[in-house]
Amino acid sequence: MKRALLPALLLCALPAAAADREPTLKDLKRPPPEVRTGETVAPNPDRARDLYRRFLELEAGDPALRTEAMRRLGDLQLEAGDTVRGETPGLGVEETREAIAIYTKLIETQPDYPRADAVLYQLARGWEALGDADKALYYLDRLVAKYPSSLRVDEAQFRRGEILFIGKRYPEAQRAYEAASAFGETSEFYEQSLYKLGWSLFKQSENEAAIDPFVKVLDLKLLDPALPGQVTDPAELPRADRELVQDTFRVLSIGFSYVDDKDTLDRYLARRSEIPYGYMLYSELGDLYVTKERYTDAADTYRAFVGRFPDHERAPLLQMQAIDAYKKGGFAQLVLDGKKEFVERYRLGSSYWAARTPEQFPLVARELKTNLTDLAQYYHAEAQRTKKKPDYHEAARWYREFLQSFPDDPTAAATNYLLAETLFESEDFRGAALEYERTAYAYAFHEKSAAAGYAALVAYEREGKSLAGAGADAWNRQRLESQQRFAMTFPAHPESSTLLTRTAREYYDLKDLPRALEVAGLVLARQPPVEPAMQRTAWTVTGNAQFDTGRFKDAEGAYLQVQSLLVPQDPEAAAINERLAASIYKQGEAKQGAGDAAGAVEDYLRVGRLAPGAAIRETAEFDAAALLVGLKDWPRAIAVLESFRSAWPSSARQPDVTRNLALAYLEGGRPGDAAGEFERIAASPGETP
Predict the structure, then answer these.
(1) 66-113: per-residue pLDDT in tens?
(2) Which residues touch 146 (CB under 8 Å, ≥6 apart)?
(3) pTM (2 d.p.)
(4) Displacement of CA 411 from its chain's centroid (Å)
(5) What is the DSSP track for 164-186?
(6) Measured between alpha carbons, how far is 353 from 373 in angstroms, rounded to an integer?
(7) Residues 15-20: contacts with CB within 8 Å, 24+ apart?
(8) How far apart are CA 1 and CA 242, in angstroms?
(9) pLDDT > 70: what percent of the chain?
(10) Which of 39, 99, 307, 484 could form a disulfide linkage to 78, CB 3.0–4.6 angstroms apart?
(11) C-alpha span between 252 and 255 (Å, rounded)
C-alpha cells in the first residue's frame, strides 16, 4: 500500500534532536489533536511548496514519496507561475522554469515513474507558457507515443494540433485533431478538435473534406438528440456557442464557394441523410455571395434549397431571400419572376399549406400577400402605360389570385375595385360590371362602395351597346336590377333618385308592369320627397301601369296626381288629360257592362268635369244621354242632350241627339219642344219622322 504523504511532511516538522535518533513510543505520546468542525481551511500554496522543499532537502525518506513530492512541488510551482502571469503579464517566468527543472529531473531520475504521462503533459504546458512551442510539442509527442492509453491523450493530441496549426503545419495538425476527435463526445476536447480539424483541412484547400467535421460541430450545437428534427435557433445560444456556430457557417460557406458553389452543398446533402438545419447552410452561402455582390449566385443558392425541398417550412423564406438578392442587384425582371415563382409555389391551397395555416406561418402569408399585390399593381401600371390587353389580363389575374387567397383581408374591397377597373380599362365591360357590383355589395360599407355601384351601371351601359336580341334583353334586365339595387343601397347618392325613377320608366317600357309599379312606389315613398319632375314621372308610370292592368280607378287617381304636378303650358298636359278621361270612361264602360247604368252615367259625365278637353268627352256624354233615355230619366236626359247639341254642333251624332230629344220632350211633358224636334227630323234629308 502506498504510504500517505502527510506523515512524511509531519516528520519534516519534528525537532532536530528527534530526527537524529530512532523515534520511540515516548515520542508518540502527544495530546490528542483538537478537531474544529464547521471551519473551512483555506489552502496555502506557499506553505505547501515550502513543506515540499524541506521534505525534499532530507536525504532520507521513501523514494516513492520523494518522487511524488517532486511532482507535486512542480505542479505548485507551475500554478504559481500561471497565477503571477495572469496578474502581471510577462512575470512568472522564474516559477515556471523551476517547475520545468523539477519535472525534468523527475523524468530523468525516474524514467519509469507511473505518472510520467502527467509529468510530460506538465512539461509541455510549462514550455508553452514560456513561449517555446517546439519544446512543448516535443514533450506532447513523447506523451502520445509512449502513453497512448493515458487519460490525457485526447487533450495532448488537441494541444499538439494547436501548436502545429499555429505553426502552419496543417497536415500534421490535421492528424493530431483527428486523433483527438476520435475519442468522441466522451472527451471534453471533441467539439474543439472537430472545429480545428475542419480548419486544418480548409487551410490545405481540402474544402469538401472539411465539410464533415464542421457539420458535426453544428450538429453538436444545433441539434438535441432528445428532440429529433428540432433545430436550436443560433440566436438563443450562449455567446461563445453562438459565435462558434456563426464562424462555422462562415467557413463552410467560403469552402462551398471555392468548390462548385451550391452544387457541392447539394452533393453533400444528397450523400448524408437529411440535415434539419440544411436551409441554414444554403442561407449562409447565399448571404456570403450577397456580401460579395454576387447577387445572382446568391439567388441561385437560395433557390437551390427551394428546388430541393419546396415544401420545407423554411423554403418560402429562402425564396424571399432570393427575391431580395435580385432587388439588391437591380434585376427588376428577375425580381418580378421571383415574385411570380413565390406565388405559384406558395399560393394558399398549394402543397406547402397542406398541413399548415397562415396563422402558423404569418411571415409566409404576409409575403404571399405582398407579392400578389406587387404583381397586380405592376401589371396594372404597365397596362395603363402600354394599353395592351394582355397586360390588363395579367393584372386581373393577380388581383383575382389575391382575392381568392385573402377574401377577408382588410384591403380586399379596394383590391376588388382595382380588379373591376382593370377589366373596364381592358373593355371587358361584362366582367367589370360584375366585379364592380361585388365591390359595392359583397363587402361591408367602404369608401369605394358607392363609386363601385355607380361604375357598375356605366359598365352595364357600355356592354349593352354591343348586344342584340335575347342577349340584350337579358342583360338589360340585369342592368335594371343593378340600377334599382344601387338606388336603394345608396339613397344619399346624388344620382340615386334619378336612377330609381328611370328604372320605373324602363320597367314600364319593357311592359314589366308589376316591377314598374313597385319601383314607382319606391320613388314616391322617398323622404324627403323627390323633385316634382320625378314625382310626375313616377305617377305617370303608376297611372299607365294601372290602366294597362284594368285598374282604372287607381289609374284615375294617379293621373290626377300627375295633373297636380303639371306646370303652366306643360306640353304633356293634353296627353295626361286624355289618359285621365280614358280611365274614367273605362270605369263607366265597366259599370255599364255590369248592368249599373246609373253608375255608368255618373262616370261618363265625370269625364266632362275632370277632363273637359279630352277627345273622348263627346262619346262619354252621348253615351250618358243614351243611358238616361233608356232609364227614362227625361229631365236629365234632356239636359245632357241639349248640352251635347250645344257643345258639338257638327257631330255626326246630332241626328241621334234630335231623335232622343224629341222622345225625351214628348215623354217629359214638353209637347211643344217635341214638335220642334219632329220638324227638325222632317226637314233633315233621309230622316223619317
Answers:
(1) 777 778 888 888 888 788 877 888 777 888 898 899 889 888 888 888
(2) 116, 117, 120
(3) 0.74
(4) 11
(5) HHHTT-HHHHHHHHHHHHTTGGG
(6) 20
(7) none
(8) 50
(9) 91
(10) 99
(11) 5
